Amino acid sequence: MAADESARDAALFRALRRTWEQVDPVPADLVDRMVAVVAAADLSREYALLALVEGEALAAMRGDAEMLTLQFSDGTTSVLVHTTETESGGRRIDGWVDAAATEVVLLRDDDADGERAVPVESGRFAFDDVPAGVLRLRVVLEGEAPDGAAALTTPRFEI
Question: How many domains does the chain have?
């Protein structure tokens, strides 16, 4: 009896599919449009626009300059980052964010130090003695999930 019900259900679903294909067919470009929408979803937050504000472009981007100022923006939130070399050979990162943020997390590509988080006070944050290398910053905005999933994450940059 279960086989009869299964066969009837399959026939019913085929008839329903044919009806919908005739009444409301799937647009020919729907798959391409959906792929584009999914690929671009939250793209502005994941890949924030990187703009070099001062310093020589090639030298600064490779970390050869003593000072580097970068601006990151996703169109809603902007982050200004200024790095300087310290006497110990590390880097100091001073930053400012123009949105209500609770903390900024320093993410290293080599994961040598793990994640470091600092609180944001009046839009300002700072990291001391950061080793040279490739890193990103994740700005956790007020009201965001604790893991910062929807927070602004900068593209990678080298100091």
Answer: 2
